[in-house]
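Predict the structure of Erythromycin esterase family protein.
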Amino acid sequence: MADHGADGRPAESVRRALHDAIVPCDTVDPFDPLTDLAAFGTTVGDATVVGLGEPSHGTREVFRLKHRLFRYLVTECGCRTFAIEANVSEAFALDAYVKEGDGTARDRLLDSAVHDVWHCESVLALLEWIRSYNERHPDDQIGVAGFDMQHNETTADHLRSYLETVDPDFFDRIESDLTAVELPAKDEQDVESLQAYGEACDRVATALTDRFDESRQAYVEQTSPEAFERARHQVRVLGQAARQFDALEPGEQSFDHVGIRDEAMAENVARLVGTEDDLVAVWAHNDHVKRGSLASGRYGDMDSMGERLAARDDVDYVPVGISIGSGSVRSYSPDAGRYEVYPVSDLPAGSLPATLTDTGLDVGYLDLTDLSETGPLGEWFARGPARYSITGTAIDGDPVGSVESNPKRDFDGLAFVRKSSPAVGLTDE
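Done. Here is the predicted structure for Erythromycin esterase family protein.
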């Protein structure tokens, strides 16, 4: 039997199998009842880490659906950690807001140095919901954590404050290097500038690793075990950043630094899993959440964060991807120096978005855990239908791209939203 019809669409047997397998969802509204998400719960099972992916960093409906999925994880699965694709230290202010009501969600987002792709009304609504939940459950609170390691101005600032308290004499010895880390690289497009920044990160990380190890008891006595571990982990993050920047080579097309980032993010996520009963929700791009190669091979044979998490013995990892059908997205334009709206050009018949659109659903969910690899749908998936991979920055003028991969290999669950509209930025004009 032919895999595709003359019009490029998958064979009727594939479309029928997809229609039978996909579960309609009522809405993307995060505050509506969750009774239609039972299939998502089946996917989650006994996971300790659930990756919630997204095809772009700028789709309002996807952010709202992810908020809804996270709410399900909290209320039905006991999840108490929301981990976002942001630097470890950048998320401290968000954690203080949701737990203590420190400031407002808007102020914490805009002032925390969290990447501005998250400066939008959908993420704001999520943080406000977490704060509301914590007010109602003061003894069973949700925390917010970051797991990225690229931008370390806030890391250096927190370490400065900690060292001034516990070890002012040693702080004086490394202050100049710490100041260099507090200042971003002079030119983020210049490899030598980034390498110099990485060298400063390495000097601080090397000096502080030894100092923290030999001074643990004294530091803990002056602060607390929790404060010590928080500061010690930020030293590790600086070491991760140093490795990433050191991998950059002027004039060479190498993606080693990209793989180092995903390796580090996986390490940082795994540290968030404290006991067997913990459940961590990870909010990131499909390209990081998926198993297999990062961005399905776009950066060469680099394992994704999801692949590294799936390979760990101390993590039970479940990745959930999200696909959109068509519409538009918000992405940063380097040329304009601001966020702009970009159309999502239709992928051809036979692509994953086009085939999901043919189901007629506005929102749907597909549990892939028990999907047969030898049935019509599993065999079609194995041929690698194209799906969207949309960047947060409009590289070469257009953020909208695609990759070809097997959804069942990449994910344990796949959600679908037919129509994409741009996320609404908090400061967009």
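The first strand starts at residue 23 and ends at 24.
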